[in-house]
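Internal ticket #5521
Category: modeling
Description: The requester needs a full-assembly model to guide mutagenesis choices. All entity lines are attached below as received. Residue total reported by intake: 566.
Assigned to: D.W.
Attached entities:
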Amino acid sequence: MRFLRRGFSEDRYGVTNVVSLVLITGIVISLIGLVFTSYLPAWGKDVEAQTLNSVMDSFMDLKGSMDTLSVNGDEGVSLTTSIKLGSTGGPVFGFGRMTGSLEVNADWGRMVISDTGVPPKNYGISRGSIEYKSSNNYVDEQNIHLEGGAIVREQLGSSVIKGPPNIIISEDAGGELILYVLSTSIEGEMNSYSGTGTNMITMTLISHTDTSYDIPPGSGISITIRTMFGLTWEGHMDGYLQSHGLVRDTDYSISLGSDPEGFDTFGITFLTLDRMDLRTTFFSVYIT
Amino acid sequence: MKNDRGDAVIVSAVLIMSILLSLSGRLIISYGDVVGKEMDMEHACDLEDSFVRIRMSMRALLEAEDTNTVIVNRVTLGTFGNPYLAVARSSGILHLDPRPQDFSLSIILRDNLAGGQRVINTYTGSLEYRSNNYYFHDQNYLLQAGAVILEEYGSYSVSSPPSLIFEERISGTYSLRMNGFGLSGEEWSIAGFESITTVTRMLSSSSFQIAPSSNEDVIIRVTGPTRFAWADHLSSRFLEMGFGGGDFNIVDGGSYADFEILDIDEFNGNFGEMEVSI
């Protein structure tokens, strides 16, 4: 006991090292905690946003390829676009790791072009959409759809058309109102691919037809598209047609509803057309 | 006064932390710079691809004589940086410049006896991308009359050539075919990092055929800062196609450069007037 008392009383500096080490460790752990709670989530968000932008770029390239092949009309010619479904994350603990899925869907994107007679006469039917769905950790989920020739981006319940469809209105030199529609069918294996890797989408033009129809006075042309984004299509077409001088409910009308099979639809009817140029194309889609 | 044991751990810890901070600083400064440069270079390649894709769309529209379809293409204006290495984002500006004073390419038929010149066709307008890189030197791209032109360090060169085809007929005559595009639309600029879309539509198409007599020459006249890049490129292409140095001539006209084709039997041109919306 005597020895112990002497020991405590004589060495008053013995704990300084331990206290310093604990304090420094505390500071380091606090700094690491700050980085984990503040910086890494922000960096992870950045990585996810970068991946989502890259997916949107791929969809734009895909649409550009389809439009170019449709114009060329070279049947049997293919164009391949790469798409990165997700990300393995950044270098520190994989922050920003996210996955995505890609699917060719035969149900949505169906487009029916018909006249306004009773019963209506169909001029063309196309179908198919390509859908990307993200599974994020930081950024809100983002889904991208290529349907009816348009790219639709959906996030937080709202959507926007990022690539316009080929539904074009023009007036020729004689003042005749002409509607041009590029109706694209996407056929392929209806599989879903998911993960973080890169997939290749190969589009092959199988066939195409060009037809021109004179529209008699009193008749109109209806385009009905199966879509979950009817309001977005309505806003886009309203803006486009009104910028070309057309008046809603005089030159065209819009309806939102559902078809007999229960799918939501967007319908637009052109009431004052003189002619319709319709190009119908069939694409085979192969994803690897 | 003689107690020198208490600060040892603190000093060691501070030293270790200093070393770690120095290493991470060095990593960010050196490796971040390398990564930034790499990203800027990759972006330049992607941008050239985008310009080539836009031209491919224009060629498709011209060959199909399709004035209905619009083709959407993507142009990514900048890089995304790298948050871990504090790599900054590089940005850029996309500018549609339809003004003929900034670029025009004219096909002219010159009568050497009478001394007159007749303009057969003129292509105007350019789509320009100007980079604002942080790491790699700036590389600007221009799409003019079907050629993609690169500008760096203030000089211009053709990085993707226009469509110019030389045909030698069985009859022994020589013919040149050129596909070109005029760019029109509202003058517009957009700047930033993100991907934006360009919408291309052909407004009209036309073709012409010139069969110069022995007293006539065909001249390709280019105005604007890219005129010598065009002249140099045409000169190289003609030599590749088997023409000799006496078959063509380059004339510096001050504000324009003339590429004179002195010995050709036929010159065919396909021309598409493209409306580009950004």
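Resolution: model delivered.
Comment from assignee: Chain A has one domain: 2-287.
Ticket closed.
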